[in-house]
């Protein structure tokens, strides 16, 4: 007989996954700063951390416990995970420091708009989404958009993390790669990082556009108090 999850425990299942992946990302970054063996482990943990982004949402839908709080917790977890990776790789010298600056700025602006929308009963995704058109809903919340951005991130973070593991292995004398091959690896990492940045902006700009009513409505309520 299948064991049923009680209503009190069910919502926690998805939320615990969201919280655990935040803890795991800090462990992953710490491992990247240790020896080459730990860096290899961190490479695989990076994939796990990104995969868990879809796992918490899947559990919420599977257990039928999706909630407004869970959606916000998921987004907060995403922000912490993404920003931690981008800032670390920039600090490590693997990418330009402008990439995390742009992504963090985009995140603050998008989250500000979403907070205003949430105060009026709108959520980032789902039936009560703040997105107002089919196009913006597709760009921001469609499975294709979200999965494509997730793939861009996992490729970027995994590739950049893999380069750290490779360089640590070379320094330790475990293997040897030609300088030209390392340059190619570096260029591919840059292409992946900037591709993820473009995806990030493509998914962020529609939120700012559709959310203008919530921002301007606070200052000019008479002009922005009508539903489309």
Q: Could you list some keywords that capture this structure?
A:
single chain; 228 residues; mainly alpha; Four Helix Bundle (Hemerythrin (Met), subunit A); 8 helices; elongated
Written overview of the protein:
The chain has one domain (10-219): Four Helix Bundle (Hemerythrin (Met), subunit A) (Up-down Bundle). The protein contains eight helices and no strands. The chain has helices spanning 10-32, 36-62, 68-91, 98-119, 134-141, 143-172, 179-210, 212-219. The chain is elongated. Mean pLDDT is 81; it is low at 1-11.
Topology, element by element:
Elements: H1 10-32, H2 36-62, H3 68-91, H4 98-119, H5 134-141, H6 143-172, H7 179-210, H8 212-219
Helix pairs in contact: 1-2, 1-3, 2-3, 2-6, 3-4, 3-6, 4-7, 5-6, 5-7, 6-7
CATH topology: Four Helix Bundle (Hemerythrin (Met), subunit A)
CATH architectural designation? Up-down Bundle
Number of strands: 0
Q: Which spans of ≥5 residues are poorly predicted at pLDDT below 50?
A: 1-11
Rough shape?
elongated
Structural class: mainly alpha
Major sheet details: none
Q: Kindly give the count of domains.
A: 1
For the record, give the distance between the C-alpha atoms at the N and C termini, rounded to a whole number.
50 Å
Radius of gyration: 20 Å
